[in-house]
Description:
Elements: H1 5-21, E1 29-33, E2 39-43, H2 45-69, H3 82-105, H4 112-130, H5 151-174, H6 180-210
Helix pairs in contact: 1-2, 1-3, 2-3, 3-4, 4-5, 5-6
Amino acid sequence: MRRLAPGAIGFAASVAFAGWAYQKLPAAVVTHWGIDGRPDGWSSPLTAVVMFPAIGLLLLLIFWVLPRIDPRREAYTASSSPYWIVANIVMLVVAVLHVVVLGNALGWAIRVPVLVPVMVGGLFVVIGILMPRMQPSWFMGIRTPWTLSSDEVWARTHQMGGRFWIGAGVLLALAALGGRFWLFLGVGGAAFAVLAPVVYSWRIWRDLQRS
């Protein structure tokens, strides 16, 4: 569990902040914004306070359990493993989003529709940078029948996939500029980054089989 300490600390801090903010929240808390940046979803103060901590707790349990049930556990052994870095960053992003949503409800000058795509884009970039370091496993990385059947296919796919994810992260961050064009561009880039490595891994595997 110590490998998840940064994420757990961020999670605990967001819970403490939520407890402090609960009595100060308005009767309806904005929890969703449309593509035009305008609020289009509200929740009760209790839901707004509990929702993100519940997600954070679930993530903490998932990130803790997965390495223990993966047959290829060696991919998780080092504290510097990309798995633990990504796990902690994801939990910290959830914690920050919780504070941002509640802070916005408290009247803080926060442009949530701008901040969220920048954070998600940044997460994509970090994952893209770490991808070439990811070792074969059942729960981390680009897992296709071809990457899991060949370490060479895994390595080459993650080298290329990392570039796709970095590019998609930049496009997602640009979605913060607003407007349907930038949003569709960011979502399209994310979809490409997810699907393209699957096709790429098949092509590499096919070429290796032919040779």
